[in-house]
Each structure stands twice: as C-alpha cells, then as structure tokens.
Amino acid sequence: MQFLRRFVFPVFALFVFSLISSMAASNEASASSIYDVLKIHGLPMGLLPKGVKNFSLDNSGKFEVHLDQACNAKFENELHYDMNVTGTLSYGQIDGLSGISAQDLFLWFPVKEIRVDIPSSGLIYFDVGVVSKQFSLSSFETPRDCLAAPVPDLRDGRHVVESVPEVKYS
C-alpha cells in the first residue's frame, strides 16, 4: 500500500496533468486561424476584422496579429485596428491589448482590455482606461468588414484617459 501512495499516485497525477496540457496545446495548435483561437479562449470571433491572415501565438497566450492596412469597423461604436494588434489571451479575456481603439463622442480611446463574463451574461466589456464600456456580445459574433482608414488622433482621448484617475468596478 505504501508503494501505491509513494510511487503510483504521483506518476498517475503527472500523467493526467501532461495529458490535459497536451490536449490544450493541441487545441491551440490545431487552430488554423486567429478566429479559431478566439473561440477556443471563449471569445467571439468578431473581435478582429475579416481578412487576418498572419498571426502568432506563444504558450503564454501572447499574440500578434498583422493586417494588410489600418482599418475601421462599425459596431455599436466604431473600432479602429492598427496594422499590428497585440495582447495576451486567457479564457474570456484579452489584456495588455494594443492596436485597437474605440470611438466615443468623437474621441478615440485606446482599448486596454476586453473581457466577457463567465458564465456569459451576453455582454462584452472594453476597458478604455477611464471606464469599462459594455456592448452586446452578439454584435461580435462574426468578423466585420474593415475599411481602410488613417490612424486616428488619440491625443485627445489619451489626454482624457490620463487626466482621470483609474476607477475599477467589480
């Protein structure tokens, strides 16, 4: 009995852990597009515009997406995508985000984080530094067409973000 506790149980636990890890890695490795990667992480495919062909993802969840050109897509608000979008994926959220800006009241604000409620409430949240804006999750079910656009002038929005203290609501 001591043999089972000292040897077999730890080996079995290690086997189960490695099996689960390899299954998660194979799910991400089998993802043929960034849209599949978003779905695997519990996020809607429409967070990124149509036409993403080049992306990278490492084991820590850090990703980089390359677009042919900077562009804008219309949702409830307008979103701007730089040619390079980066962030860190975890289940139900992207943090450390750069390359996406949201327009509100004629100002552009850099989106720092995107998250969905788990279990889903049907809402998605965009953290733009000052506040967290909520949208209907259904608006992001499918990738949108993205029209070529110049990089928005974020100076006004950044000035607003930097001048207001950060407030987190739980």
From TrEMBL:
Superkingdom of the source species: Eukaryota
Keywords: Signal
Pfam families: DUF538
InterPro entries documented for this protein: At5g01610-like, DUF538
Keyword Signal: yes
Signal sequence segment: 1-25
Family annotation (SUPFAM superfamilies): At5g01610-like
Protein name: DUF538 family protein
Source species of the chain: Sesamum angustifolium
Organism taxonomic ancestry: Eukaryota, Viridiplantae, Streptophyta, Embryophyta, Tracheophyta
